[in-house]
Amino acid sequence: MPLIKLFRRYEIEVAFVFAILVLLGAGLSSYRALESAKGSVGWVRHTYQVIGSIDDLSESLALMHSSGRSYVLTGDDRYRRLNRDAVTDFTRANLQLIDLTRDNPEQAAQMPEIKRLIDLISQRSETVITARANYGADRAIDLLRAGEGARALEAFRQLATTMKDAELRLLEQREEQASQDFLTTQNALAAATILALILTASAGLGTVRDIRRRKTAEAELFLEKERAQVTLASIGDGVMRADATGNVTFLNRAGTLLTGWPEDEAVGKPLGDVFTVIDATTRTPISQRMQVAITQGAVAPLPETALLVRRDGREVPIEDTVAPIRDREGKFTGAVNVFRDVSEAREASRRLRHVAHHDPLTGLPNRVLLDDRMGRAVAVADRHSSKVALLYLDLDGFKLINDTRGHAVGDELLKSVTTRLLACVRECDTVSRMGGDEFVILLTAVNQPEDAAITANRVLRSLSMPHAIDGAELAVTASIGISVFPDDARTPAELLSNADAAMYEAKTSGPAKYVFYPAPAVDPEQRRA
C-alpha cells in the first residue's frame, strides 16, 4: 500500500521521468539517423559535383578543339583568345575532378589517362594554332586532317562517359541510402512522438502542452544559435560584435585573420584597440562607426580609401556594414560589424582605370587621359594668364622599319622613342601616344613660345641618335608641329588641331624639323635638328 500511495503521489513526476527517458532514447536514435542521412546527402552532393566536373571538363575540351579549328579556318584572334580561355577552364576543371575523385580508387585510377588525353589534346590544339599563326592555314589544316586531336578528344569522351556511368550508379545507390536514412529518421521521430503523447497524457494535457512548447522553443533556439555560430565561423567576411559599452564580445575566424587579433584576446577589449581604421589619403583615424551605431543607430558608409590597421601594423583596404542591435523595447544594446578585405577589388579597379587611360604598348597616357590633362592645363593657364604648348610628333622613317623588320622590332623602337621623349620633358609635362608613330607632348607653365622650341630641339637631337634594337642600330627622326595657348588656340581641341596641322607642314618641309602654328616664330634654319 505505501508503494501504491507513493506512486500516486508522484504519478506526474514518474510520468515525466518515463517521458523524458523515452524522448532521450528517441532523440539519440533520431540524432544518429539524422547524422547518417546527412552523410548520405553529402555523398549524393559529392557525386553531382563529380558529374558536373566531368561535364565542365568535356565542354572546355570541346570548346578548345572547336575554337582551334575556327581559328585555323578564319584566322580570327577572337577564336584564339577563346581557345586560351578554354585551356584555363579545363585546367581548373581537371584539378577539381582530381580533388573530387581522391576518395574513389576506381575513378582515381582513370585520372592518369584523363591527364594524358588532356595533354595530348592541348598539345595538338596549340600545335595547330601555332602552325596557323606562323605558317598559314594550309599547314594548320594538314595537321587537323591528321586527326590526332579529334581521336584523343573522342577517346576522352568515351572515358568521360565511362566515369559518368560509374558515378550515376553510385548516385543511384547513395540516393537510395539517403532515402532509407530519412525514412528511418521519420519512423523514429514518429514513434517518439506517439510514445511521448501517451506518457505525458497521463500527467495532464495542459502540462504536456507547456513542456512541449518549452522544449520546442529551446530546441529551435539552440538550432538557430548553432546555425548562426557555424555560419559566422564559415563565412569569408569578418564579423565583430560589441556591447553597449563599446567592448568586443565576439570576433569570428575571418575577423581574427583580418585584424590579427585572436578572439580570446579581442573579447573584452575596447573597439578602438581591436578595430582601428584610417583614411589612406589623409592618414587620419576614422571614427568608431560601431560606437556611433550603438549611440545613434545609424552610420555613414566607409570612404573608399579606408584602411584597417592590423595588430602587426599592416594596413588592409576594407569595406564594412555596421548595424545596431536592439532589445525588445528598441533600446540599443550593441552593434555588429561585417567587414571584408577589398585589396584585390581595389587593385583590379586601379588596373582597369590604368588600362582605360594608357597606351598598352608604351604605357604612356592615351587620348582620353591627354584630353583630360589638356583641359586642366588650359583652365589653369587661363586663370593664371600663362601659356600651354602642345608638340605633335610624327616619326620619320618608322613605317619603313616596321614593314621591313617586323612589328616586334617596330614595337621595341616605339618603346625606345618613348624613353627618350620622357627624358626630354619635365615631370609636370605629359607625353602621350596618339597611335601608330604619332606622339603628343603637353608642356604646362610655358613662359614664352621659345620654351617650346627649346624642348622641340631637345627632342629632335635625342631622337636623331641611333636606337639599338634587336642587335641593329635603327635611325628615325621626327616632324614636330607646335601650337601655343592662348596665342593661336583658345580650346584644347584647337590646340591639338593646330599642332597637327603644323606637324604636316613640318613634314612637307623635310625630316627632323619643327614648325609653329600658324607661322614660324623662329628662323627656319634654326629648326633643323
Automatic annotation (TrEMBL):
Top-rank taxon of the source lineage equals Bacteria
Has the keyword Lipid metabolism been applied to this entry? no
Where exactly are the transmembrane stretches of this chain? 12-31
Give GO terms: molecular function aspect only.
catalytic activity
**Residue ranges of domain GGDEF in the record:** 386-519
Q: Does the keyword Iron-sulfur apply?
A: no
Q: Which InterPro entries match?
A: Biofilm_reg_signaling, CHASE3, GGDEF_dom, Nucleotide_cyclase, PAC, PAS, PAS-assoc_C, PAS-like_dom_sf
Could you tell me which Pfam families the record lists for this protein? CHASE3 (PF05227), GGDEF (PF00990), PAS (PF00989)
Q: Which residues form the PAC domain?
A: 302-354
* Record key words, sorted: Membrane, Transmembrane, Transmembrane helix
**NCBIfam families with a match to the protein in the record:** GGDEF, sensory_box
Q: What is this protein called?
A: Diguanylate cyclase
